[in-house]
Amino acid sequence: MGKKKKAKASKPAAGKTKAARLTLGVAVPEMQTPSPLADPKVKKKARNKFYERELRRLHIELVKLQEWVKHEGRKVVLLFEGRDAAGKGGVIKRIVEPLNPRACRVVALGTPTERQKTQWYFQRYTAELPAAGEMALFDRSWYNRAGVERVMGFCTEAEYWEFVRSCPAFERMLVRSGITIVKYWFSVSDKEQERRFKSRVEDPTKRWKLSPMDMESRNRWQAYSRAKDDMLSTPIPIRQGGTWLIRTTRSGPT
Q: Does the residue 217 lie in any domain?
């Protein structure tokens, strides 16, 4: 009888996953397994325990990151965009919690003044950019023009398309000046957004989060969806600061 051929060892299924992670510049083993936070079968107590443990671990990594940014003299800009009630504020709060506020600022600009409306569109944002060793987190940014302003009619179509042409050049200028741009887009389902809005109405401590514009955004769900798709399909996201899509379904560990 002939010798049996040895079966070739199959490559691990995680190979592609690892390669995909490396192309993003990260290698996180935890990404291979689903988070218990997304598993409805896991009990609330176990989810809370996992959440607190992971939050502690990530806070330590954020402190290391801030020390590295300071030591290397880096300038880091994080942009947080997305739908109302999608979780931007909560994530920003968790990020800055363990960091030194002298070197990490949250930028949340209000409605532009009459004078600012006559300025170069990017002008009021440039004043908030970080110096060496600093991080600036923008709770909404210049991408307002491609989202809120366009949907709510706060800018003309001509102003919108000028933004589409100018934004890549503006961000390339920032990158050439040594600024690292990281972008996050937060999404939430129609049903979940409605639930969160109702929660804010019923909870007196959360009502400040609700504005007439938030309520109007519920009536323009499809318009916001089209604006998001248009924004992500244009050449706006340059290579140095590509947009990350994040889908949220629940707040915190519960």
A: yes
